[in-house]
Amino acid sequence: MKDKEIQKLIEKETKRQKSVINLIASENYVSQDVLKALGSELTNKYAEGYSAHRYYGGNEFSDKVENLAKSRALKLFKLSPKKWHVNVQALSGSPANLAVYLGLVPLGGTIMGMSLTDGGHLTHGHKVSATGKFWKAIQYGVDPKTERIDYEKLKKLAKKEKPNIIVAGFTAYPRLVDYKKFREIADSVRLPAGRQGASLMVDMSHTAGLVAGGVIASPFPHANVVTTTTHKTLRGPRSALIFSRIDERELYKKIDRAVFPGLQGGPHLNQIAAVAVALKEASTPAFKKYAKQVVKNTKALTDELKRLGWRIVSGGTDTHLALVDTWMGGKGISGKEASDRLEKAGIIVNKNTIPGETRSPMDPSGIRIGTAAETTRGSKERDMIKIARKIDRILRV
Ligand SMILES: Cc1ncc(COP(=O)(O)O)c(C=O)c1O
β-pairing, 225-229 with 199-203? Predict the structure, then answer.
């Protein structure tokens, strides 16, 4: 690289990534093939529009790249192209979610998602996000005792507030989700216009790799729309996919139009190619084994932390992530202090709010830990036990 300043920074970041224990639940390490596709000449091409309907010439190969990414996405999640459509152009998870609302919910309509404090994402209607400004946002949480979703309470809230769309998707919820119950709740909503049933959008950004690997149940049988980032457990480049049912009220056309021309111009073809590469990798037996190991590793890590006396939110995990209550009602240390101390010792986590948070988002009561990245590097349960013991030594007051 001729630009030595940037080259040095890339080298330093690569070295940093190799030298730390990475427990950030939303990160992963992509393959060299994914990196090659990202750094390819596809970045030079403008391809506004969709396959075979472009506004620029010279898109013979762009169409093939986009079509391949789409067919691989449908195949990976076992979806019939007759029933499901997928948009591969959204630049990342947040614009993907915004596109769905823009396509399906009238401005001023109501979206209902989990609150950030209890494990939802900003784009599920938080007041600082455009999603909480352009639409009326109703937020649900978890049961304070079990720290799991209370489906009865959710149903009552949905019936009362009549949201146009219900979001079942999470950033920091370690438990399995009952999508069938979410479907029933969405169906029970009587919309003001007299139409029966809210749309159900599943945001499986965090767990897409686990769904692809067959370790947790697929949300597709119950959802109208499924969004996902591609860079967490799915182990691809930073991007997003939006799946929608073809047979329902032309949802997919509305969503496609919301992505382009509603929110974006030219798609990032290099990114779409890199997604296609990752989707192929995720369809291999090796990836299935990886996804299984991720869940086993998280369980090993949290079981050991629990044994050492740390409180794990909801008592444990079923997925790739867990929340550790480091504050423990004032007996421990704050999430910020925990994450700072761990970083000094080469363990990277993020501070995180916990259900019933009593502190602030900048200095909350817990940390979020995940094993997708370390599992990619080959870690097994015994390594996780060692990491848990190291965490315990660093955090103990
Ligand atoms: C559930 C969920 N949805 C959406 C997003 C947004 O993704 P991005 O950061 O790519 O915009 C995230 C990111 O953390 C997420 O966890």
Answer: parallel
Q: Which class in CATH covers the domain with range 34-281?
A: alpha beta
Where are the chain's structural domains? 34-281, 285-395
Verify whether residue 140 is a known catalytic residue. no
Q: Which of 24, 27, 28, 94 to mutate to test the pocket of ligand 1 (most atoms within 8 A of CB)?
A: 94
For residue 221, the CA-to-ligand 1 centroid distance in Å is: 22
- Closest Cα to residue 104, out of 219, 240, 172, 201? 201
Across 163-189, b (16+ Cβ under 10 Å) vs e yields bbbbbbbbbbbbbebbbebbbebbeeb
Q: Within 13 Å and on the Cβ side, how many CA atoms surround 9?
A: 3
* Those residues with Cβ within 8 angstroms of residue 373's Cβ, 6 or more apart along the chain or in another chain: 22, 23, 24, 27, 28, 29
Judge if the beta carbon of residue 62 lies within 6 A of ligand 1: no
Rounded Cα distance between 30 and 88, Å, is 18
Q: What is the pLDDT of residues 174-224, one digit of tens each?
A: 999 999 999 999 999 988 766 779 999 999 999 999 999 999 999 999 999
Does pTM surpass 0.85? yes
Other beta carbons within 10 angstroms of residue 19's beta carbon come to 8
Please name the residue that has the structure tokens 């990245």: 373
pLDDT in tens, 61-84: 999 999 999 999 999 999 999 999
Domain 285-395 = CATH 3.40.640.10: no
User: Does residue 209 have its Cβ closer than 6 Å to ligand 1?
Assistant: no
Strand ranges (E), 225-348: 225-229, 240-245, 311-312, 321-325, 347-348
27 Cβ closer than 6 Å to some ligand 1 atom: no
**CA of 4 relative to ligand 1 center, distance in Å:** 32
Can you tell me which atom of ligand 1 is nearest the CA of 231?
10
